[in-house]
Amino acid sequence: MEYKDNVLGNNVFQKLQQTVKNDKLPWFFNNATSYTDSATPDDFSFSHLVVQNGEVYSSLAPFLEACVLNALDSIGEPIQDLLRIRLGLITCAATSTTHSPHVDYEHPHKSGLIYLNDADGDTVFYDQFYDNTSGMHSQDYSKEQSFTVHKAVTPKANRIAWFNGLRFHASSTTTTVDRRLVLNFNYV
Fold first, then answer.
1. What is each CA distance from 37 to 40, 76, 95, 102, in whole angstroms?
2. pLDDT at 32
3. Contact 66, 132 (CB under 8 A)
């Protein structure tokens, strides 16, 4: 699990922020922020799916794909296939809540997060990895784990975090700003 600040050039990052913070961008409500069947009152979020498994869901796809590829070039990270691009928005809460540990896909992949604003809602990375040979769904697998924190990364505008996609991770609610904005992507 690694991270780097100022991953995108200033002009590109400013355009990315303007695009995502536009009040015309449609956001879709998610009952649970991570893949869980036991959501708590603060375990909801909004998302905007851009690309998933080769299917384009948003007119923002060309621009956001270029942002992701620029970020990966900036950190020297090779890519064969872009599996998903998704924008995530978590609103401010009275107290900080860490959501359920999860993985985005159950097969080997890498994941990346580009934080679009400063916030106090850390992303928590755990020592535990999903064993995709276990025959168990990752949700069921996670219920049998005792999670220990590997590292927490605080959202900072224009910071990228990238990691083995089978590492369990979780987002947290922000308590100091109106929203936590992240460009989430998965790739091989």
1. 10, 37, 21, 12
2. 63
3. no
Q: Taking CA 129 as the corner, what is the angle to CA 124 and CA 135, rounded to the nearest 5 degrees?
A: 135
Pair of tokens at residue 138: 């990752």
DSSP state of 5: S
Prediction pTM value: 0.94
Quick one: pLDDT at residue 104? 95
The CA distance from 54 to 57, in Å, is 10
CA distance 102 to 114: 18
**How far apart are alpha carbons 160 and 92 in whole angstroms?**
21
pLDDT computed for residue 30 by the predictor? 80
Say how far apart CA 164 and CA 1 lie, in whole Å: 7
User: What number of other Cβ atoms are within 10 A of residue 56's Cβ?
Assistant: 14
CA distances from 132 to 79, 129, 140, 142 (A): 21, 9, 12, 12
H/E element, 55: strand 55-56
Residues of the chain with pLDDT under 50: 38
